[in-house]
């Protein structure tokens, strides 16, 4: 789910990839969430450790340095999320985000739609 300003781009990303979520581990789900969040940013903006937080409910992930025994909900911020940000597919090849096929992966002569630019919403193919 995505709410707030510019949330439609994130919703579109999540709708496009939701079928793969059942087979994802925590790190892959976080990566999908970050890719969806990145879709809401202005073209010249990037996710960084200074403007991104990750809220998690459930077991501790492989990259978490400290687990808080106070409950199943926690927020990762700062350098704790750097490994997740570095694991993202670069923006230029966002079409190749987890669970998708890029033009380079397609058979010769067959290409997909161009990646979205700027503030445009991602359009789902029928």
Question: In terms of topology, how is this protein built?
Answer:
Elements: H1 7-17, H2 26-38, E1 54-57, E2 73-76, H3 82-86
Antiparallel strand pairs: 1-2
Organism: Hermanssonia centrifuga
Region (Disordered): 87-126
Protein name: Proteasome subunit alpha type
Structure description:
The protein has 126 residues and is of the alpha+beta class. The protein has a domain at 7-91. The chain is 23% helix and 6% strand. It has three helices and two strands; from the N terminus they run ααββα. It has helices spanning 7-17, 26-38, 82-86, and strands at residues 54-57, 73-76. It has a two-stranded antiparallel sheet with strand order 1-2. α1 (7-17) packs antiparallel against α2 (26-38). The longest helix has 13 residues, at 26-38. The radius of gyration is 15 Å and the shape is globular. The model is unreliable at 96-120 (pLDDT under 50). Residues 96-111 have a biased composition (Low complexity). One of its GO terms (biological process) is proteolysis involved in protein catabolic process.
Percent helix among the residues? 10-25%
Topology pattern, helix = H, strand = E: HHEEH
CA-atom Rg in angstroms: 15 Å
- Give me the number of helical elements: 3
In the predicted model, the low-confidence regions spanning at least 5 consecutive residues are 96-120
- Share of residues in strands: 5-15%
Shape: globular
Number of DSSP-assigned strands: 2
Walk across the major sheet and give the strand order: 1-2
Q: Largest beta sheet, briefly?
A: 2 strands, antiparallel
Averaging pLDDT over every residue, what do you get?
77
Distance between the termini: 21 Å
Computed structural class: alpha+beta
């Amino acid at each position: 789910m995505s709410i707030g300003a510019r949330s439609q781009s994130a919703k579109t990303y999540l709708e496009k990839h939701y079928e793969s979520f059942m087979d994802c581990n925590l790190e892959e789900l976080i990566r999908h969430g970050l890719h969806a969040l990145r879709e809401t940013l202005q073209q010249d903006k990037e996710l960084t450790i200074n403007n991104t937080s990750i809220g998690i409910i459930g077991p501790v992930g492989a990259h978490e340095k400290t687990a808080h025994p106070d409950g199943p909900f926690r927020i990762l911020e700062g350098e704790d999320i750097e490994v997740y940000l570095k694991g993202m597919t670069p923006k230029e090849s966002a079409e190749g985000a987890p669970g998708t096929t890029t033009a380079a992966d397609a058979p010769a002569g067959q290409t997909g739609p161009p990646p979205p630019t700027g503030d445009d919403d991602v359009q789902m193919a029928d």
